[in-house]
Amino acid sequence: MFLKYSPLKAKGVSLLSLGRFILCFIHIGACYCCSYDTLLAFALQSREKGQGKRVVQESSNSNSMDVAPSSRSNELQNSKVSLSNTEKLSPENHNLVEVCRVIPNILLDIRYATAHNFLGFSLYAKPACYLHKKVADALLKVQEELASMGLGLKIFDGYRPLSVQQLMWKAVKDERYVANPMQGGRHTRGTAVDLTLVNHEGRELEMPTSYDDFTEKAHSDYSDLPKKTLQNRALLANVMKRQGFQQLPTEWWHFDFEGWNDDIQFPSLDIELEQLK
Ligand SMILES: [Zn+2]
User: Fold this and answer.
1) pTM for this prediction
2) Of 94, 134, 178, 221, which is least packed with CB atoms within 10 Å of its CB?
3) Domain total for the chain?
4) What is the pLDDT of residues 3-48, one digit of tens each?
5) Boundaries of domain holding 99
6) Under a CB-based contact definition with an 8 Å cutoff, are residues 123 and 167 in contact?
């Protein structure tokens, strides 16, 4: 089965609590008592809660989702593949910039650096956001336009190392929600950004769903929503579009920069976040 029974969930242990528990073990380097496939199944089962039609399908291949019961770091190492369009650039030879240095007042809530994400455990070594320089410069213009309205941006995710993308692909083999790493990915190029709007106090504006809600309700054309929510989603899409970003049809929060799939200009990268300055 794609999903496994989780005794922890049955006992009502919250995802957040489990995530903290796991993080503690990761931090002391002793996560070997928690098999990865159980954690993955737990995270995916937790996503079954909530509204809307779930789109994650059970795999027809019972083994396809079974990740070897090894530690996360081992899993990341073992899942790496060689791609013809992926350049293994050194940390000194890339065009990624830390977004906070380009847009000092931007808010960050990097979910994959915490357990507060759909997998339920941390994937990043630090809560930082990097993007290709061109993309960060365009995002600065978005932030400036929003500032004139008393609004701003909050980022959930930016550049994502290819090894992390491969791990996510194992969890959600659905290209509507996770880019196939064999095709280079989207976030792996530093050209995709997940974000939302905030008011002058930093409070998020009402949007159709929370972040990483893989339901039809998160689709950019879902219309059975309050008028204000529709206006907020449209404002985000329009202000981003004016600076060259296109909203993903299945995720209101995900935007790709124009020309993102140009392998020469925007190659997929596998530089760990801790290697970036
Ligand atoms: Zn995204």
Assistant:
1) 0.70
2) 221
3) 1
4) 333 333 333 434 444 444 444 333 333 222 233 333 344 344 444 3
5) 86-275
6) yes
Structure tokens given for 277: 């300055």
Asked if the structure places residue 51 within a domain, the reply is no
Catalytically active residues are 251
User: 160 alpha carbon to ligand 1 midpoint, in Å?
Assistant: 9
Q: Give the sheet arrangement for strand 251-257, strand by strand.
A: 107-108, 152-157, 192-198, 251-257, 245-248
Going through 15-159 in order, the beta strands assigned E by DSSP cover 96-98, 107-108, 130-132, 152-157
**Single-letter amino acid code for the residue at 85:** N
What does the pLDDT look like over 143-184, one tens digit per residue?
999 999 999 999 999 999 999 999 888 888 888 778 888 877
Distance 212 CA to ligand 1 centre (A): 8
CA of 113 to the centre of ligand 1 (A): 15
Take residue 193 and report the two structure tokens written for it.
């950004």
d(CA 50, CA 58): 18
Inside any domain, residue 184: yes
